[in-house]
Structures are given as C-alpha cells and as structure tokens.
Amino acid sequence: MATSSKNPSDTSIRITRAGKINNYVAYALESLEKNDSNPIVLHTLPKPPDNQTATDVQPTKNDQDASNTAITLLTTPKLISVVEIIKREYLQDLEKKRSTRLVGLHQYNEIGSLEDPQGNVGYRARETDEERAQRIAMVLEGKNFPKQQQSPYMRITLSTHELPELLKKGATYQKPLTRTLSKTAKKRAKLNQKKAAQQDEATENAGLETS
C-alpha cells in the first residue's frame, strides 16, 4: 500500500529519467542548508494527475516521463545514486563549515507498489465502500473484469535526526556516515561546542533577566 508524505515541512523530490542528478543534489543540499530539521524525501512515485495537488518538487522542466512500471524501474538506480551523492556532499559541507556535527544523514528506505484496477498506473483516490461493492458485483457477474496493474516505487527519506515512526511503518534503516577528524580538528570541534554551549547559556540567562 502506497502512502505519500503528509508532512508539509518535508521536502519531496520526484526522480525522473529527464531530471539531472546535479539539480536534485543541489536542491536537496540547499533545503538542508535552509532548515536541516526538515527531512528530504526522494522517490520514484508516478506524477499525480493534473486534478490533484502535487507537493513534489521538480527541479527540472519539460518532464515527459510516463507513469509506468518500466520507467519507474529505470529511475530507481538514479534515485540511489542521488541519495549516495547527497549523503557524501552533506559530510563535505560539514567539513567546509567546520561544523561540530560528526554524523551525516539518517536514511530510511521504503519499497512498495501502487495498484490501479483500471490499468491506469498512478495516484488513485482511495476506493469507497460503494465502489468496492459495485466492482465485486461486476466481477461475480463476469462483466468488465477489472485488470490489475501495479506500479512499483521506491522512496528514501534522509534526515539529520532519527525518525522512528518510519520504522513502525516498515521502512528499513541505514545508519548515517561518520566524519573522521584529525586530532587538531577534534580539539577545535570540542572548543566550538563549548563556545556554543556558553553562548546558549548566556542567551538563556539574558532572557530570564528581562522577563
């Protein structure tokens, strides 16, 4: 059963054949730079119909991908490549900024398929009880036997913090990459952490004095 991200704070990126890897990576890193508390969701789900609101970010234009199984399977290797590059570039950015953060991005993988009894692979509204009963009645009568067709997809969520709710939904987890620091860099990181803690304490004390 396919479920899309309902959290409006998540950045959702749909990977397509026409999209450029550099664009996907740049957009994801830019989103993390603006607010690293928001997860990045990359997926190969089909494009929603025109009459539905798409929350997906599409960095490239003129996307002519058809929503079918073959194309979805073709985009999965690209999705994995994009994710690996994002994780590597994220660590390099931490190094450039001399960040005190030593771990990279947590990764959650989901694999599933979208089912459409009418043979139209894509986003389909949940079937009502009445529609289901009518469909079953038609099958029993031997009329218009619905053709089952599935569209496999893969969805990967990258986050700076752990998301245990995704594990409960069946996602697999990959630990974040770890930065390796020299002795000098480790010492500098500890000093930066100490300064940051002192600044936070000073700000908190100032707030208490003015209240």
TrEMBL record:
Amino acid composition bias (Polar residues), ranges on this chain: 50-65
Domain of life: Eukaryota
Region (Disordered): 46-65, 170-211
Composition bias type Basic residues, residue spans: 184-193
Protein name: DNA/RNA-binding protein Alba-like domain-containing protein
Native organism taxonomy: Eukaryota, Fungi, Dikarya, Basidiomycota, Agaricomycotina
